[in-house]
Design brief:
single chain; 205 residues; alpha+beta; 6-stranded mixed sheet; 23% helix; globular
Length: 205
């Protein structure tokens, strides 16, 4: 395969990853009954080096509140390597589990809302009042590793089309913005243009 064709396929694959969240149907209009809550979650590319996974709860009023954000960071473009990507998730109000497959890697997340304990690749992380986990070196041998936790305002704005505006949440924290390394460069300039549009939303530009 020529380099030009290989590069073109890589860009198409990356574009598919970036579009994955937007081509899925928006969250349903049906709300839980009064006094009850429901859970929503998602995973998407958020910078040249990172994916974001979020878990949120919402009530009959439609107001969403974040339970957990996990930022998965590696080298630039790690998530576009290999072939195929996807996420399978499930659980209940008390627990959540997700298997995330990107860049030829398999990332495991579990979360118990009552105990505020998450597990990254089977290793427990005690959150206490924090609601963000920073995971680094996802594509390094022996990785990934949890490098920190922090707290952000848990309110999650919802756009008119029904999708959560996770970018607006991430830019509330300078530490998160720095962790996302939006100044990092992708191996291919055309792929970089796709990522730049995502980072512009995170940075509020």
């Amino acid at each position: 395969m020529s380099r030009r064709v290989a590069t073109g396929l890589a860009i198409l694959f990356l574009g598919g990853i970036l579009m994955a969240a937007s081509v899925q149907p928006p969250p349903g209009k049906r709300m839980p009954p009064p006094g009850a809550t429901a859970t929503s979650s998602g995973t998407r590319v958020i910078s040249p080096v990172a994916l974001v996974t979020w878990i949120a709860t919402y009530g009959n009023d439609g107001v969403h509140a974040l339970d957990l954000i996990v930022l998965w960071r590696g080298s630039p473009g790690w998530f576009s390597r290999g072939s195929g990507s996807g996420t399978s998730s499930g659980g209940s109000m008390a627990s959540f589990h997700s298997t995330i497959r990107y860049g030829g890697l398999e990332l495991q997340l579990e979360f118990e809302s009552k105990t505020r304990i998450a597990q990254i690749q089977g290793k427990p992380v005690q959150l206490h009042d924090n609601n963000v986990i920073l995971v680094d070196d996802v594509d390094v041998t022996g990785g990934p590793s949890v490098v920190g936790t922090l707290r952000v305002d848990p309110s999650l704005p919802i756009a008119d089309n029904g999708y959560p505006r996770i970018e607006a949440v991430l830019r509330r924290s300078e530490e998160i913005v720095s962790f996302l390394r939006c100044d990092a460069r992708m191996p291919d300039a055309r792929a970089q243009a796709l990522i730049d549009s995502v980072c512009a939303q995170v940075l509020g530009k």
